[in-house]
């Protein structure tokens, strides 16, 4: 009988093994894809693309019995070669080839030069050819950093005793959403795609006190802007036993501090490649919604048109104000008007026109919405009724308040927006692997 | 100006702090929900439910100025008390209360006694009242273990240099699925919910060599069985530069070894509570599909009705066979017939009626499907055509082969099924937080 016993050590080497040890003069094997070939006549440089970086391989006429003309860009190969220190090569070494084995060949030549350092093409083309353009080192570095952000979020919350949950994305119609939902037929029942795990994560606070989820959410909004997509990743957390909604902002700040430290430690090559300066998050300023409007109105000589709403240009100016006044790329705007927040938001007992809620702006863009939630059954029912909502429509959600919930609150962070601002990209599609927007359903 | 600086130390204590240090005789504060109250006259035991466990609090008449009759089950409270060693109490101590502060009160009495050790109710009721029944310690322990499985999967693959990806769940209609897809209207385009991240994860092998994703998948199957749900969590990975599809099984075995070690280390209380015996995964037997059928046919005296299909009862018997013959709860069944596998599966060059693929059975239930994929453009186009498929329908997927892909393969694991078998549950709904099935769209 045959058995599988676990992972075997591979004969081929990782880049980090070679660069961290003294391998000069030794023969090693490596796998990768031919990123580019520079033929200089008697010698050719074959750049191997691997997940962990680029490797410069030197092909010298007569040193291998391989016919270089058989090698194509995007061929997957396994090479054997002697490690030679070379300061000008990536990672400080090159591989003087003694053998090449072709593992697979492309059928056609690439329609776009992905081996260019920076892809010089329109966003439209980049997205249409996404499966290929992502192979460009700068393009793929963006999503490594995005991976790091998610790891930071999860690892930090795990240390803070949060439990990770997985809630359904197909939900009964009419739960929270208005017109901006994707509708579907679910075995002859009316269903929709979840716009947020809001009800479920609150439910799970009753179970685990502190919970988080990183998962897709869906919004059928028709805007075609640089900061909206129709399917995005929401990083959500919700925590019980809070004394104040300030604790939620403290948790988010702690998470950002932890995450940026993790990026510095484990994603340094990607940060360097994309020239990312991590912002200082040791202190994030906090300002009331109404005060923020006034500050901006005074400083930038701008009339307040609607005291209960924040226009995108005002967000940008608030971001600018706190950058100029205290050097911060981030600012918490608190106490949003009750009218602008969902029914489950807790009103401020000091002034019920406002809520115990906040947005976090990053360089003038909202990347987080959060706040304290109502936890008392009668209060939430009354608030629903005052808005003309029918509590019976969401009785399974209201069940948690009926039978008791601790004071709690939480937030949702748009992963692609956070990445976009961190990388100073002008369009959210640049930091979405396969974006879904009004015109885009493929690839 | 006010600033948020990060997470502040809370004044209240965690259970692990109290049980790990010598706190006897000291006064501490704790928060939690009233799980149950046992009033014995002059003394009452108030059991506090917290994410980290239950705490026995002793309420003695006259020791606090609190009126016990105000306290209800499911009230959220903050207590002050003196730690007293007590072997019979959970975690070896009890809290002799000196003060109680009520943070919130339920509106009604629970419709079901969740403080019972084991919920004695039908699955139907359990699911209908899911937001509440999950508060039962045994119920919630299941999903802590599920969290641990996902952490194990991710952490192991991270160590193995996999990159985590996030791929879209709304996809163009007709990509892979047949009739078992949920259809939706996407801005007047025909879309469906992804049944698997298959095409995207293969695409990303061209970018990062090794990738994984843990995300929801959707199947509109109408079966109402104990092992099917319509939205589940798929743990997927895909790896490039493989020499053989055996490497994929080795990676999965390594992952299971790592994950069970993690559960032992970090989820011991939950394993103990649910009396889970972690299976031995140091060696997982492997058997060909056709051989497995013969072995079972001989040993259990069962006729082979269809040599190209595996019936559920046969799966159960294969599981039984390898348990009896080599004591393993797991078995890899390899070389499934080509007809039963999708077009992208790589046929066995030695016998093209079969594929270089496998299922992993756990106690007779398929929890994983995986295998090597075709990586050559002409081969995949030819195979599609031989099946009457039109390559143009999925040209963005085929793009990756056209421009070159390394040899690769991967797998998908059903998280809820794996959890179900690990916990010896009879129904997959027991290990799904909020299950979606043919009749169930709420809660």
* Structural classification of chain A: alpha+beta
Number of domains of chain A: 2
CATH architectural name of the largest domain in chain A = 2-Layer Sandwich
Q: Count the beta strands of chain A.
A: 19
Q: Report, as a whole number of angstroms, the end-to-end distance of chain A.
A: 44 Å
> What is the tally of helical segments of chain A?
12
| CATH fold category name of the largest domain in chain A | BirA Bifunctional Protein, domain 2
Q: Under the CATH scheme, which class of the largest domain in chain A? A: Alpha Beta
Largest sheet of chain A: 8 strands, mixed
Low-confidence stretches of chain A: none
CATH superfamily of the largest domain in chain A: Bira Bifunctional Protein, Domain 2
Helical percent range of chain A?
25-40%
Describe this structure in words.
Two copies of one chain form a homodimer. Chain A has twelve helices and 19 strands. With 443 residues, chain A is an alpha+beta fold. Chain A has two domains: 15-104, Nucleic acid-binding proteins (OB fold (Dihydrolipoamide Acetyltransferase, E2P)); 137-431, Bira Bifunctional Protein, Domain 2 (BirA Bifunctional Protein, domain 2, 2-Layer Sandwich), CATH 3.30.930. An eight-stranded mixed β-sheet of chain A has the order 7-11-12-19-18-17-14-13, sandwiched between helices. Chain A has a five-stranded mixed β-barrel with strand order 2-3-4-6-5. A three-stranded antiparallel β-sheet of chain A has the order 8-10-9, with no helix packed on it. In chain A, helix 4 (137-159) crosses helix 6 (246-266). At the A-B interface, strand 1, helix 3, helix 4, strand 7 and strand 8 of A face strand 1, helix 3, helix 4, strand 7 and strand 8 of B.
């Amino acid at each position: 009988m045959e058995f599988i016993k676990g992972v075997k050590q591979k004969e081929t080497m990782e880049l980090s093994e070679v660069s961290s040890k003294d391998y000069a003069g030794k023969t090693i094997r490596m796998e990768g894809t031919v990123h580019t070939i520079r033929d200089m006549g008697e010698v050719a440089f074959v750049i191997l693309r691997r997940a962990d970086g680029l490797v410069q391989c030197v092909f010298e006429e007569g040193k291998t019995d391989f016919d270089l003309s058989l090698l194509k860009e995007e061929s997957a190969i396994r090479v054997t070669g002697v490690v030679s220190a070379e300061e000008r090569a990536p990672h400080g070494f090159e591989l003087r080839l003694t053998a090449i084995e072709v593992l697979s060949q492309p059928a056609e030549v690439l329609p776009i030069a992905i081996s260019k350092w920076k892809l010089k093409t329109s966003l439209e083309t980049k997205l249409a050819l996404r499966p290929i353009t992502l192979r460009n080192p700068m393009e793929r570095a963006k999503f490594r950093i995005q991976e790091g952000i998610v790891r930071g979020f999860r690892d930090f919350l795990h240390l803070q005793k949060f439990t990770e949950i997985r809630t359904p994305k197909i939900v009964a119609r009419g739960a929270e959403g208005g017109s901006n939902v994707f509708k579907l037929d679910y075995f002859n029942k009316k269903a929709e795609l979840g716009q947020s795990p809001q009800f479920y994560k609150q439910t799970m606070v009753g179970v685990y006190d502190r919970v988080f989820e990183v998962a897709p959410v869906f919004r059928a909004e028709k805007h075609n802007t640089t900061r909206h997509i129709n399917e995005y990743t929401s990083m959500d957390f919700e925590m019980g036993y809070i004394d104040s909604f300030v604790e939620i902002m403290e948790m988010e700040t702690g998470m950002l501090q932890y995450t940026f430290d993790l990026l510095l430690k484990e994603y340094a090559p990607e940060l360097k490649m994309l020239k990312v300066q991590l912002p200082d998050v040791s202190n994030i300023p906090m300002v009331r919604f109404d005060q923020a409007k006034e500050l901006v109105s005074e400083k930038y000589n701008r009339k307040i048109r609607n005291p209960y709403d924040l226009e995108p240009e005002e967000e940008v100016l608030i971001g600018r104000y706190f950058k100029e006044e205290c050097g911060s790329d981030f600012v918490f705007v608190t106490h949003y008007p009750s009218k602008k927040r969902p029914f489950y938001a807790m009103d401020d007992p000091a002034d019920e026109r406002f809520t115990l809620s906040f947005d976090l702006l990053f360089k003038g863009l909202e990347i987080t919405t959060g706040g304290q939630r109502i936890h008392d059954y009668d209060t939430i029912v009354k608030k629903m009724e005052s808005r003309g909502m029918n509590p019976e429509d969401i009785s399974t959600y209201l069940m948690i308040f009926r039978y008791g919930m601790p004071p709690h609150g939480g937030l949702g962070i748009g992963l692609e927006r956070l990445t976009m601002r961190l990388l100073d990209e002008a369009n959210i599609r640049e930091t979405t692997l396969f974006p879904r927007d009004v015109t885009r359903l493929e690839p």
